[in-house]
Design brief:
2 domains; alpha/beta; 14 helices; Rossmann fold
């Protein structure tokens, strides 16, 4: 049977993909939340996704199932926490068993997240003889010095050694793999955003109605951050900047939307306490609202006037793309992963140093210069329509799965003929 015959067979039946993600809603994971939105579109493109995830007894579920449960195929493995080694081994053993059974064996195994503790699994992965895809969603910065820095390239190469294909959502991540000497086939697929859902508010009247629904003040400027409340996201720096903003705009309101350590045990409780302390020490604590994880992020974005994202390290953050879709003028700081796919500074976003005074200055400038804010709003929405369509992302994923399966069949055929 030649490759053309394989292609015709595959095109006439769904490609079965097992997506391994320790955290999957209702347990929070940004990558899993994003991929959940892809499932219906992938099904339309002939890709059937089965989720393999944990079910945690000691962690509060804070994520949101965006799809009706009957539209999802999920295998849940009982665990205490993701950091518990015994539970993790149970999860991995169950995953191998699931993929080994003829009735449940997928065509492709796709890891949306991995841990260093998974290294012991590698022999079993090789024995599965399945094509393996690894997603790389966050750029790993090497340690500053010492033996860990020396070992960093070797550890990174070993971490992806079982994979047949790597998927990255930023060109910088792809270049990092090249620089580390990783020769695995690597494909760049940017995150897509549902522009029919994430779109600008139609009018000021609609914004007032939506704010009332959310119990937000109707006559004050609202600045919003969306993301996990963790140190890497720079939330403390943003709160420090708010002290300066309130000096000139005392009615302005800051919304911090995302899960905290109270909701996700893998986050730092000490950092969470630090953030709450900073809020209480601000000139007016009532002007900073920590919402926790919410299911209707789009409503908060469409109710806002400005989006701020002071993160240090990202891949391609969903929150920024969704703010773009909603036509919000965005203030960003330089983060690992910021690249041309986000557009041009000053044309599509305001880029500032990660310092409270600089962030505050940019926010106040947009609050005062409404013409500039409106221009950014129009330009960023157009940019999102031109470059961030979820359909283009879904097409690329469907092609990735198809090509990966074809390559696997070709290797299998060649080994039999050798």
């Amino acid at each position: 049977m030649d490759t053309q015959e394989f292609s015709e067979i595959i095109m006439n039946k769904p490609i079965r993909v097992c997506l391994s993600s320790l955290y999957f809603p209702p347990w929070f994971s940004g990558a899993a939340l994003r991929f959940q939105r892809y499932i219906p579109g992938l099904a339309e493109r002939g890709v059937h996704i089965t989720i393999f995830a944990g079910e945690f007894s000691d962690e509060m579920p804070t994520g949101t199932l965006l799809l009706p449960s009957e539209h999802l195929s999920i295998q849940r493995i009982p665990m205490s926490t993701a950091s518990d080694k015994h539970s993790l081994r149970q999860y991995l053993k169950a995953l191998i068993d699931y993929c080994s059974q003829p009735s449940t064996r997928p065509d492709i195994l796709h890891f949306l997240s991995t841990k260093s503790a998974w290294f012991f699994l590698y022999p079993a992965l090789y024995r599965l003889r399945l094509p393996l895809i690894y997603s790389h969603t966050l750029i790993n910065n090497p340690p500053q010095a010492g033996i860990k820095r020396i070992l960093f390239p070797f550890v990174q190469r070993f971490a992806v050694s079982p994979a047949h294909h790597i998927v990255v959502n930023s060109q910088r991540a792809k270049q990092q793999y090249i620089d580390l000497g990783i020769t695995k086939k690597t494909t760049y697929i940017p995150n897509g955003v549902d522009l029919d859902k994430f779109h600008p508010i139609s009018s000021s009247d609609d914004k007032r109605v939506l704010r009332k629904k959310l119990n937000l003040p109707t006559g004050t400027p609202i600045v919003t951050f969306v993301g996990s409340i963790i140190s890497r996201k720079g939330v403390d720096t943003l709160i420090e900047s708010w002290r300066i903003v309130l000096e000139q705009s005392p009615n302005a309101l800051l919304l911090l939307i995302g899960p905290t350590a109270n909701e996700c045990s893998q986050y730092s409780a000490s950092y969470n306490a630090f953030i709450e302390q900073l809020i209480q020490q601000s000139p007016d604590p009532s002007k900073i609202i920590l919402t926790g994880q919410v299911s209707n992020v789009v409503d908060y974005l469409r109710s806002s006037d400005i989006f701020v994202f002071p993160s240090l390290n990202e891949g391609m953050p969903n929150a920024v793309l969704e703010a773009y879709g909603c036509g919000l003028p965005c203030v960003l700081t330089e983060f690992t992963g910021l690249e041309d796919s986000f557009g041009d500074s000053n044309s599509h976003y305001i880029l500032v140093e990660r310092k409270p005074v600089e962030i505050a200055k940019a926010i106040l400038d947009l609050l005062k210069d409404t013409e500039k804010a409106m221009r950014l709003s129009r330009q960023v929405r157009i940019f999102a329509e031109q470059t961030m369509s979820i359909d283009a992302t879904l097409d690329q994923y469907a092609r990735l799965y198809f090509d990966t399966l074809i390559d696997h069949k070709k290797r299998h055929l060649a080994s039999k003929q050798a």
